[in-house]
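Researcher: I'd like a structural prediction for the single chain below. Treat it as a standalone chain; there are no partners to consider.
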Amino acid sequence: MRVVYVGADDCPPCKTWEAQDMPAYINSAASLSVPLIRIKSQKSANAFQQRNWPSNTQGCLRR
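Model: Treating it as a single chain, here is the predicted structure.
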């Protein structure tokens, strides 16, 4: 199991989550057993394009 976070540089809610909630998750005990994988693009419109996703996460795009 893993947490897949999808964010973008032009996404205000993403920036808020990255600043406030992501550090807490990364430093939590849960992150040791359920790692966080960050998918980040410059524009939110491109966030779900395959080129932005590492090869080990592209299976998530097909579901």
